[in-house]
Structure formats: structure tokens, C-alpha cells
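Reopening this ticket.

The earlier resolution said the output was attached, but the attachment link was broken on my side. Pasting everything inline this time so it's all in one place.
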Amino acid sequence: MSVGRAVGAEWDDEGESDDQGDSEAGRRPSWGAMTATIGDVERGVITEILKLAIGRAAVALSRLVDGEVALSSAPVEFLSPAQAAARVGEATGRGDSVVVRQHFETGFSGDILLIFPEQRSLELVRAMMRDTVPLDSLTELEQEALLEVGNIVLNACLGGLSRNLGGTIEGSLPVYGRGRGVRILGALPADAHLVMILRVDFAMTGTGTEGYIVMIMDDGSAQAFATALANRAGHAAIG
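Inline output:
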């Protein structure tokens, strides 16, 4: 299997959107107030959008490795930065994680991340290589391979948001990193950002691992995102 270099992308869809800025100082809503605007209907919309996006990513990854790749996802959760860091830390055994991170901009903007526990990421890469490389020799291949996986999965998610929420989403080149706990999310002030987290189960050639898709938005973007989801609810079928 050859692993290509990750590239930036732009997704287009019909519709226009206005730029959203940060709320004025002193008028910023609390994290609890922001999550209160995302009810069951909005959660259902984003869960369905990402479920279909994950399905498209599985097809693309299957073509990449010339074998079956199965991806499944759980319902999304909306958490504070501290809660999200604790959740990721718990899932990774408080150890190091690897992350592929991409910045995006549209009517709402932020960062979208794909996170794996470090050891499980090596196992995933080895499965992509069809077990032809010893596990202790994979480190030098890990970054390039995970960038490719992240590029496919994150672009599928951003493409799904563009198709269903309207507007154009511009994404940066994905960046590879390592860290643990809150460090993997970046230095975020408590309650100043909204974090959406989605567990994704990867299965290929008898190997299974779980990763996390995380989307981080500031106050203004979180409000615009909630509005876009509310506007999408009840319209045509999600695709």
C-alpha cells in the first residue's frame, strides 16, 4: 500500500452564510447556555450527518488499503474542554495520544481532530500495511499513514457538514501531533469553547481500535453551528 501526501480541500454547496464573530466581552454565554441551545433534534441531525460521513470515509479507506474497512460511530456528545480532556484521557488510559488536526472556516469555524491512543494507532497502521512491518519498526511510517487516514476521515466529515448545512467550508492542511489529556485538545480557556466528541470504531483485517473525532469551536461559532443545525432539522433527508 502506498500512502499519499495529505492535501487541503474546499467543499462547495449551494447557499450563503454570514461570518460569525466572537460575542462581546461580558456577554459571552456560558458553556451550559451554549449546550442548552443544542437539543435532541439538533443532536440527532449532527449524529446522522456524521454517521453518513463515516460511511463514506470507510469506503475511501477500503479503496486505500485494498481491503474491507468497517467504521461505526456512537451518538455525538457536547462537552466543555475540561470534560472532553477527561473523556479522552480516560479512553487512552491517561497515556499519550496521537492526533491529526485540521482547521476549518465557514459560517462557523474551528478545529476538527482525529485522536487515537498511541499504541492502538501503531496497530492500525500495521493493519493498513497488512502486517508486513514489525510493530517496533512502524514509528517512522506512523505519521504519514495517520495523516492519510485523518485526511480521509476529517474531510468526509467536513464534506458532510457542507452538503447538509450549506455554504462553503475551507479546510487547512492536516497536522500531526502527540500529547495527552487537555494538551491533545490545545490550550483552551475553560467554558470559552464548545467541544463536540464522537467515538469511532475502526475494524480492518481482524484488528479493531477506537478513535475520537473532536470538533472545537469558540463561542460565536458554537452559536452559529447550533443555529445551522436547528435550521436543517425537518428539511429534506440528510445526505
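Reporter confirms the inline version is readable. The domain at 29-232 is CATH 3.40.1550.10 (Chemotaxis protein chec). The CA atoms of residues 79 and 195 lie 5 Å apart.
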